[in-house]
Every structure is written in C-alpha cells, then in structure tokens.
Amino acid sequence: MIEFDHVSKHYPGGNEALTNLSLEIRHGELLVLAGHSGAGKSTLLKLIAALEAPTAGRVLVNGLDVGRMRRSQVPYLRRSLGLVMQEHRLLMDRTVFDNVMLPLTISSQPPSDAAKRVRVALERVGLAEFENAMPITLSGGEQQRVAIARAIVNRPSILIADEPTAHLDPAYAREIAALFRSFHAAGVTLILATHDDTLYSPYGARRVELAHGKLLS
Amino acid sequence: MSAHLIALRQALRRLGRKPVATLLSALVIAIALTLPALGYVLVDNVAGLANGISGKPEISVFLKNEVPPDRVKAIETSLRIDPAIAALRFVPRDVALKQLAARGGFADVTGALVDNPLPDAFVIEPRNDTPASFEALRKQIATFPEVAETQLDSEWVERLHAIVVLARSITLLLASLLGAALLIVTFNTIRLQLLTQRQEISVKLLLGATRNYVRRPFLYFGLLQGLLGGVLAWILVAALLQVIAPQIEALAQRYSIALNIGGPAPWQGAVLCAFAALLGWLGAGISVRRHLHDGLVID
Question: A164 in helix, strand or coil?
Fold first, then answer.
C-alpha cells in the first residue's frame, strides 16, 4: 500500500508543487492522476520513487517512509517499482534486449534466468522479434513499449507511469493503455499520470484529480 | 563478485571501444612516469656503485719517527684484532720511499735525499663504509701516542653520498609531480566520460543502481588505464636504458669507475605498474566523487 500523509513539496524559488496532500493507494489498485500541466502529478509520482523528498509529511510505500529512507536504501526501493517516464529514456547505443536486461543486470540476476525474463517481458509487450533491434529503428510507440518491458522485467508489484502516451498518436496510445490495463488485471498496482483518463476510467480506474498541488477529487 | 566482474567488463569495453584514445592516454601516463622511473633506476645504480666502493677508502696512519720496531709490531697486532678494521697493510718507511721514487718524476728528488724523511705507516681499510664510522675509527687510532698523523680519505665518499641523496630527493619530487599529472589525466578522462555517459548513469540510477554500481566501472577504468600506462612506462624505461646505458658506462670508464647499469628488476616494474594503477584508481575515484551528479537528471 502507498500512503501520502499530509504531504507538501516546495521547490526552491517558491514553487509549491503539492500542498498538504493525503491519499491512500491500495494494493492492486489502478489509479489515474488527472490534472492540468503543473498540477503536481509528476511530483507525486517522483515522491513514490524517492526521486524527490517531501518538504513536509510522509510518503509510505509498503510501510517504508521513503522521505526519511537512508540514501543507500533508495536503489532497493526503485528496484521494487516499475517506472515508465514520459520520455522513454532508452539507451540508444544498446539493443532492445540489452535495454530490457539493464534492471536485471543492476540487481545481479543470473544471466541465463535474466535472458529468459527479458524474452518473456518483450513477448508481453509484443516486441519479441525486435530483441536485436536498436531502439532508434523503432517507432515511438514501440520505443515506449520497450520502456514498459524494461519496467516490468523485474516483476514489480507497483508500476508507475508518468504520461506514458503523451507523445504517441491515438492508435499507439490505445495500444499502450491496453497493455497497462493488462498488467493491472494481473494484480499489479498501477499509478498513472495522464491527460487522457478516458483510456482507463471505463475500466475500473480510480480517478484522482489534482489542481495547483491540491487534491480535487 | 559478479558486480565487480560486470564493472571490469564494462571498463574493458570502454577501453577497447576507442583504442587510439586509450593508447594516447596511456602514453601520456607512461611518459609522465618514465622520467622519475628512469631517474630512480639510474640513481639506484649509482647508489649501488657508491655502496660498493665506499669500503675502499682508506685511513693512512703515519707513525712518529724512531718508534721502536716492537712498538710498531704491538700497534699492528692491536689494530689487526680491531673489529672495525677490515684490512691492514704496514708500509715501512723504506718501502714508502721506494714507492715514491718509483712514481714518475720523483726518482731524482728521492735520490738527492740524505735521509729518508718518510715515516712508517699503516694503511687501514675500515669495515663499515659510512663516513661517520670512518671518522670514529680515525679518532680511535689517533689516540696511540706513537701516531703522528692520520689521514682520512672519505671526503669524496661523503660527496658521492650527498649527490646520491640529492638525486634521490629530485627523483622523489619528480615522481610526486608527475604522479599528480597522472592523477589529473585520469581525473579529466573520467570527468569527460561522466559527462558523455550522464544519460546512461541517470537511467541506471532510475532503475535502482546503487552509487557503487555506477562508480565501479569508472574506478576499474582508471585502474586499467593507469596499469596500461605503468606497463608502457616500464617498457619505455627498459628501452631508454638500452640506449643510454652504454654511453653512461663509457663515461664512467673514463673516470676508472666500473659502472654496470642494470635495467629495472621485475619487482621494480611490478611496483611501477601497481603505483600507476593505484594513482589511476585514485584519480578516477576523486573524479567520480566530484562529478557523478554534474548535469545528472534522474526524474
């Protein structure tokens, strides 16, 4: 479970990204964060992955206060999460296989087992035949799917995605959204920030709207 | 262990990816190390020479005139059992005069003498080869009442020792300065690598890489680059010695000094390589600590 307990986040220069926000995300839930640009959606996701620390309040992930976590513990928290960013952040000088393999290499998985898991993840996102391709040769949608494969290869129980379909055309966006919904159906807690909540709302997602760092609904 | 192997493999891959740049960096390191290493080897050879021949200087002990032969014998016996004396030679005054006459140009002078003015003498070779021990022995011998004068031939040894000490200090200073250069070269190489790989680093941190996981390949890179520079420096020192050793030996021969310049011993080469690798590791470590987060975006 993820809990935001009276969380505020102020950036230097006076920008208040989140103000006294309290929110609970249950295990296995599909949560869609909606709101205008600058509403605080990305900040909220960053707080879960300890990419930012709250200025006030507590962020608990499975009972761990990530804001007060020792720096040496943060990598292990991130390994337990699947992160998909707006920019796919792929390594363009590595093959698709190597990109997806990266989280497993980082967590020192045995190579033979890791290779199998990479292939399963690529199959899951429909890119099994592209494992030797370089990301630059793939379309935007395919690149985002590689990023999703990389996020799920460690079999995370929580998947966080920040505007994963922002730069994709509607067809690709629907394809990616279907993929995320399938992960949720498999029991993964899914937290998505998106401008287009229609991709998820009809499928049992809880919609949470932010405006100017405050929870509206 | 596997994390270290992965890091080592990554470092080797980085070295191999740009062989010309790798070779150039290693050559810069090698050249920086060659000068002090060569200086060390040469000083080591000269120091060996100084140690080898410093036992040769002698103390000449001149007795007073008309010391009875039995007293001369007693003094000789007393000196022979002295543990500070390695060798002893008695030169009777007649023999001394003959030796003087035998030297070119002195025959006429000695022939014109009515009496032999030279005293009996002992020529003593001290066991210990330090200038301080020479002086102590000289003072001890001078306490015999029959001894008129003692002459210590150690000034040149002191000078040679002083030159060797100075040369060692200069070599050490050079090694420190050029070691710092190696550190800077590695520091800068790693800084540039960190800048060019900041996207990869940020992705790795995002995916749960520890700081050590990110640092390790750079540290191995620094170590391997330093090691490569050390090996090249060793080869350069050996090659340069092949060229200059005969010339130095020929020069020494002109001063009747049998100098045989030896190359760096395997253990010296190993120390050089280890020193270079350590400095490479250190330079990389400082650079990673300083620059790891420069321009890093992990959100």
Answer: coil
Dihedrals φ, ψ of B122, to 5°? -115, 140
Largest Cα–Cα separation, chain B: 108
Closest Cα to residue A88, out of A29, A138, A52? A138
Consecutive 10-residue runs of chain A (217 residues): their mean pLDDT?
93 87 93 89 93 93 90 92 87 94 91 92 91 93 91 92 82 83 89 84 84 85
Residue A72 at interface with chain B, using a CB cutoff of 8 Å = yes
DSSP output for A99-129 = HHHHHHHHTT--HHHHHHHHHHHHHHTT-GG
Residues 6+ apart with CB under 8 A from B226: B29, B182, B186, B276, B277, B278, B279, B280, B281, B283
Task: List the A2-10 sheet strands across, edge first.
Answer: A16-25, A2-10, A56-61, A64-65
Largest pairwise CA distance in chain A: 50
- The domains located in chain B, with CATH, are 2-53+158-291 (no CATH), 59-153 (3.30.70.3040)
Q: What is the pLDDT of residue A49?
A: 93
**Are A88 and A143 within 8 A, CB to CB?**
yes
CB environment A69-86: b (16+ within 10 A), e (fewer)? beeeebbebbbbbbbbbe
pLDDT tens, residue by residue, B167-198: 889 888 988 888 888 888 889 888 888 888 88
Nearest to B299 among A51, A71, A108 (CB): A51
Per CATH, is A26-54+70-207 categorized as 3.40.50.300?
yes
Q: How confident is the model at residue B51 (pLDDT cuts 50, 70, 90)?
A: low
Distance from CA of A82 to the nearest CA of B (A): 8
Q: What is the pLDDT of residue B296?
A: 57
What is the arithmetic mean of pLDDT over B37-42? 87
Nearest to A106 among B202, B207, B299 (CB): B207
Structure tokens at B228: 């490569």
CB A19 within 8 A of CB A165: no
- Asked if A102 and B208 come within 8 Å (Cβ–Cβ), the reply is no
Do residues A25 and A191 touch, judged by C-beta distance below 8 A?
A: yes
Q: How far is B267 from chain A (nearest CA, A)?
A: 37
> For residue B218, what pLDDT band results from cuts at 50, 70 and 90?
very high
How many other CB atoms sit within 10 Å of the CB of residue B247?
Answer: 10
CA distance linking residue B211 with residue B204, whole number of Å: 10
Q: B13 or B254: which carries more pLDDT confidence?
A: B13
Residue B56 — very low, low, confident or very high, per pLDDT cuts 50/70/90? Answer: low
Interchain pair A106, B204: CB under 8 A: yes
CA distance B289 to B293: 8
- Look at residue B258 and tell me whether its pLDDT is greater than 90: no
